[in-house]
Amino acid sequence: QNMFLKSHARKVATPSCSHHSTIPSHHSNPSLLFLQNAHMVMRQYFNESALKVINRRPLDNLERRNFLSPQHAARTTINSCAASCERLNRVYPRSRTYATTIIHPQTQRIKIDSPVHPSKIRNVGIIAHIDGGKTTTTERMLFYAGYSNHLGDVDDGDTVTDYMAQEVDRGITITSAAITFPWNMDNRINLIDTPGHIDFSLEVERSIRVLDGAVAIFDGAKGVEAQSHTVWKQASRHDVPKIIYINKMDKEGASLEYAMKTINVKLRVPTIPVQMPVGENRHFHAVVDLITMELIEFSEKDEGKTMIKTPVDDIDSDKYGHVQVAAHTKREEMIELITNHDEELAEKFINDEELSVQDIKAALRRITLTQKAFVVLCGSSLRNKGVQPLLDAILDYLPSPLEKTPPKAKSLTTGKTIDIPHDEKGPFCALAFKVLHDRNRGPMVFFRVYSGKLSPREKVYNATQDLTERVSKVVQMHANTPEEVSFVSAGNIGVAIGLKKTVTGDTLLSTKLQSQEPFTLKGVVIPPPVFFQSIEVETNKQQVPLEDALQILKMEDPSVTTAVDEESAQLMLYGMGELHLDIIRDRLINDFKVECYFGNIHISYREGITESITHTHTVDQPSGGSRLFCTMTIELSPLDEEERERLPHSASGNDIVFEWDEELTKPSVEVLQSHEDTIRESVSTGLMRGPYLNYAMNGVRVTVRGVKLNIAIPSRTNDLAMQFCANQAVYEALKKLKAENAVFLKEPMMKVTISTDKAHMKAVLNDVSAKRGTITSVSHLLGDDIIEAVIPLKEMIGYSTHLRNITNGICSYEMEMASYEEMPDMERKKLLESFGYDSNF
Q1: Peptide bond before 58: cis, by omega within 30 degrees of 0?
Q2: pTM of the full predicted structure?
Q3: 3-class DSSP assignment, residue 449
Q4: Rounded to a whole number, what is the distance in angstroms from the first to the last CA of the chain?
Q5: Number of H helices, E strands in the chain
Q6: Contacts of 730 (CB under 8 A, 6+ apart)
Q7: Residues 218 and 235 sit within 8 Å (Cβ to Cβ)
């Protein structure tokens, strides 16, 4: 070892002068930097067993030395390292305590076009309720991986992933950010930090759509909260395997058992804790790895970089005697939970075979990939405890692109569903899941590659829109900083510059597939807006800048929509919530410098039907040198409550089905089945505007009975005829129902959870009743009374301030969307009068 290190002294310990500028403040001593370089080389070339023992005393002495020159420091450091290893092997042959220090002398950033086997790639998202610690955990991951050289803080506004001015000002994540960093030498993690506020659910939805795995973070004192429940369901809907990280274990009232209980009860999933916290609340300082049976402590001297691992049986029994007993008990419970879900490990356990660490981890991996149960880890990211084991767990348990279920696609020629296997050498196939607008570069399209690779200056076929565009550059994103790469291959996430017309949810293919068998991947579900407000410019000169700015915002965020009110001719801006609209206002005024003012916020209600109707509509008119002809027969019927609950996820709350009648179909049922997606999309568009007050329809089933086409005209013309006919058929059917007084208004209902104390319990209950709320349950948890109720969204506007006023700022609440229910007659009349209609309209 001594000879090896001396021969590598020049390579290891002779950095350039500019290198020193990247050293963190706690590494200001250059001798320590050289020492760390030496240890990196030792860990790379020598067997890990030779490095398990590190005596810190010579290193501390070394840090205090004043070297005459860098060369002197290098020689002394290398010799000291070699001597330390020899001395430790001789003096401490039986010691099993060792320290693992994560050392990065400069920022470590890898490019996605660097060679790495797909099995070593993890595409992972961080999901949680707002203020669950997502961004803080991400910052620690980047710091320990060497991606950044400082620990960013949300309160200070200096985090890597929260880069928007609006994010810094509010201390929350608004837009998802993508980061690529290495872990454990040659492994690559493509990480997406997602928002936690309910108004930005689309950001979570489109990120999860392209991820292979997720880390679900829960507050150790609160467990499952409203939005954590929502994002969990989003991940489950896309069949994304998850591991669980219980954060904030240093918080008052934090409890691993309580957090897991809320997961078991509210999410209805089994959990397998693989760690045990040591110390409660503010005394939390370490964890026990129940797989390796080691106590893991995190050094506070270097911000948690050094993990001191000690076998549980070797720890001080006077200090940690209770930990030893509890750890063995928890390990037995863990093994029992694993064997309940994995037959292979259960068989070894029954046969009294030794269960190695590799056996247990392999079983946990199988369980995680099949989602039979979920691995649970714990820590406190803000206090720099527990993040490195979480990174290890991402590699150990979450799937690589090779292990994820191949995405489904629909052939545009046959209409059949096909699998898209992971193939680096196959034709290019990717899904565009996000678009950002850069003032200098134009649209920047985020895409996930499922097959093949994409290089700069290549043409791609947009199968969703049936058009071809050329990619000028391919980059990878470091949060908001792009870096050019030579290609993006299967299993990775990249950004394309030069695609002017591509939007969220589009399928991008190799131009070769355009002439062979093009297909489309499942897109991204865009939720309908629930709030809107009017927007006007101060001068006519601002009209064009406003339209341009809104076009960019709608391209970036498809949940932002606009419409012109037919009666008032005012421009209406639609969004997902008060905060969402506030962010849009902020960006229009401060980012785009548009001088405009906004009206009051209104709720976007829905319309429903009470009766069924069957309607046939025919389109027969000239169009661009050909003739559009289509006859469509549809039936509209209301969905009852049970049918709505059984519906698969639908942003609109409507159901569109096909029950083909051969007598009403031409040329044949088989031919028209390949056009069902086109018809479904057009019917959905028709349902976006109701006949009462032009609100979107909700709770309607549309059954398509038959379609007749002119088979002599081209397929694209037939598609256009079907789109127009479907839209008009829905419009006319709804118009007939309105004439029969079979259309009514529905208002959004919110599921509200309020935490209060006994002193304010009565006041809160009375207030809920006054807001037309229905109390569903009252429970007691950790000293607080928990009230769950369903309240109309209209009554919840400004509720945060109202609740603080009636409870002296003591109580808090959370809410999430529940359903749309029929509006009471009195409220309906008030709404009509606010729009200037007669109450009997």
Answers
A1: no
A2: 0.77
A3: strand
A4: 90
A5: 25, 40
A6: 634, 636, 683, 686, 687, 702
A7: no
Two tokens, residue 207: 């990120």
In this structure, the strands spanning 177-183 and 187-193 are: antiparallel
d(CA 404, CA 123): 10
Count of CB atoms situated within 10 Å of the CB of 542: 16
Take residue 364 and report the two structure tokens written for it. 């946990």
Token pair belonging to 182: 């290495």
Return the sign of the alpha-carbon dihedral for residues 574, 576, 577, 580: negative
* Secondary structure of residue 580 in the 3-state scheme: helix
CA distances from 640 to 358, 549, 593, 646, 761 (A): 51, 41, 48, 10, 35
Helix axes 799-807, 758-770, angle to 10 degrees: 140
* CA–CA distances in Å: residue 522 to residues 167, 205, 409, 515: 30, 13, 6, 21
Q: At what angle do helices 317-341 and 343-350 cross, to 10 degrees?
A: 120
Return the percent helix, strand and coil in the chain, to nearest 5: 35, 30, 35
Distance CA 126, CA 194 (A): 6
Task: State the 10-residue block means of pLDDT for the chain, 841 residues long.
Answer: 39 32 35 43 38 34 35 44 43 48 52 82 93 91 87 77 77 84 88 86 90 95 86 92 96 92 91 94 92 93 89 84 90 95 93 93 96 96 95 96 91 86 92 91 94 94 93 89 91 94 94 88 85 88 92 92 80 89 91 89 91 94 79 94 69 86 88 85 91 91 91 68 92 94 93 88 93 91 81 89 85 84 92 79 69
Can you tell me whether residue 504 is helix, strand or coil? coil
* CA-closest candidate to residue 290, choices 305, 302, 272, 264: 272
Query: Tokens in use for 164?
Result: 């928007």
Residue of 261, 228, 227, 229 lying closest to 376 (CA atoms): 261
Q: Which amino acid belongs to residue 150?
A: H
Do 772 and 632 form a contact (C-beta atoms < 8 A)?
no
Query: Judging by DSSP bridges, how do beta strands 121-128 and 473-478 pair with one another?
Result: unpaired
Do the beta carbons of residue 610 and residue 744 sit within 8 Å?
Answer: yes
